[in-house]
């Protein structure tokens, strides 16, 4: 469920994550308030879906040290992730950095938990390929 942090969707949130096996909870690496909102959504999710596997995903990694400073401390995120048994990823939608690894890990964990395949297989064994993003002319960022 992508609510873009909007509070008006809080009341219907449970409908969207009912019976979820996995959830990617995103926050903006350049906005500490977004990380606090992500914590809210994690607590809402865990109230009804205790066994849902969590992935904390810091976004806009491409902006760090380029246009903006990191506002969310990596160690704070990993400490919180340890508390809630989540995995941490940092990604960039613009460049694709970290996105493939995030989805690979979700698939790998699902397969392991459901004993679908031999867990010793490699990425190639799962048919996952690295994602290359063509550099486009910057206009809006």
From TrEMBL:
Is Nucleotide-binding there in the keyword field? yes
Gene3D superfamilies xrefs: P-loop containing nucleotide triphosphate hydrolases (3.40.50.300)
Keywords of this entry: Nucleotide-binding
Q: Which GO terms describe its molecular function?
A: GTP binding; GTPase activity
Q: Which InterPro entries match?
A: P-loop_NTPase (IPR027417), Small_GTPase (IPR001806)
Q: Which family does it belong to?
A: Belongs to the small GTPase superfamily. Rab family.
What is this protein identified as?
A: Ras-related protein Rab-24
Originating organism:
Larinioides sclopetarius
